[in-house]
Amino acid sequence: MTILILAVGSYGDVLPLVGMARQLRQRGHTVTVFTSAHFTELVQKAGVEFVPLGTAEDYDAMADNPALWHPHKGWRLIMKRLVSGALEETYVLLKSKVIIGNTLLVSSTLGFAARLIQETHHIPHATVHFSPGVFHSAHQSPKIPGLPLPDWLPVAFKRHMWKFLDHTIIDPVVKSRLNRFRRQLGLPPVSRIFHDWLHSPDLVLGLFPEWFAAPQPDWPPGTHVTGFPLYDEAPDSVLPGIVQNFLDAHPEPLIYTPGSANKHGQAFFKEAAEASQELGQAAIFLTRYPEQLPPSLPTGVTHFSYVPLSQLLPHAAAIIHHGGIGTCSQALRAGTPQLIQPLAFDQFDNAARVEKLGVGRMIRKRNFKASNIVHHLQTLLGSSEVKTQCLSLQKNFLENDDLSRSCHQLETTFRMV
Length: 417
Known about the structure:
With about 425 residues, this protein is of the alpha/beta class. The chain has 16 helices and 13 strands. It has helices at about 10-25, 40-45, 55-65, 75-80, 85-95, 110-120, 155-185, 195, 240-250, 265-280, 310, 325-335, 345-355, 370-380, 385-395, 400-415; strands spanning about 1-5, 30-35, 50-55, 105-110, 125-130, 205, 225, 255, 285, 300-305, 320, 340, 360. It has a seven-stranded parallel beta sheet, with helices on both faces. α10 (about 265-280) crosses α14 (about 370-380). It starts with a strand and ends with a helix.
């Protein structure tokens, strides 16, 4: 097959689809990845064809905006960018590579352009969701800031609430511009965009296991849950020498990361440095933007731009992070306790699920102070129940290749001649 993969988002959205592209190419398909020019090196290293969308400067400009990490403003910022002129440009680029009768479209949650091409040209399409928070279920509703919908509420009431939110808050941000472009394409208008339209009617893949989020009765028909992709660029490599040397001198450090695209983690790292000093425990700060770090780091605390979590976490005592699904899943596989400070998007729901599994705790941004960090880490690291549960969940990853399962599901669903 000719497979066109549209990856919209940050590293957490792009990495899994690059891993999928790499494996699909190895299985004999012709694969092209469409994503931000910011990820040029990442895609090229995977050995697949690449079409850049926008410029690296566009990505940086988005990351520079502090509103990106606000629980409500961040979503609106992303949506306005998504349905701007970038949507039309992406549609044209993607369409230019379509071979009628032998093309499969695969897109991340926000890959609206692929969904439009499916409608205009009847091209088979799979929507890929990385976290269960995307599904606005009335049975087991995701945890969203400002929207307390506990499981015990009547399903009919929650269904009504989702409908109300779609019409009053969600649709108004994207509906007008999206439907204007749909008119140009000869398509009818749509509503309840995040509840219905963004899910492909052909196939929806949930890249997480059922023990993390069981499928609900009102999820889209044709949804298949295939497991965590766990791709982080270096599945077969060893740790860089400088990292290994630090671990030899400081075994079982704490790992702190506020997210790969986060340029506004000054307060996060300030409190992290103080907490590590108070605990007297070594720590590794992970960020590609070192300007966020304190002017000087305490003894036993160091910084690396990037280290594959698949290689690093088995050596860690705990990881303190933002709640991205990729980081959560790598920690679950490594059996590493998690302290999560969610900021926006699906992170609150991911954190709630990790907490419910008994392998981590959630701490609100306003409470992310050194004293609270110390208290939570001491509780986590001193708990035999947390340790036992981490080891128990870790067994779910033995000899599992969930990325292969996802690729196999694509191949069996879309058999083309």
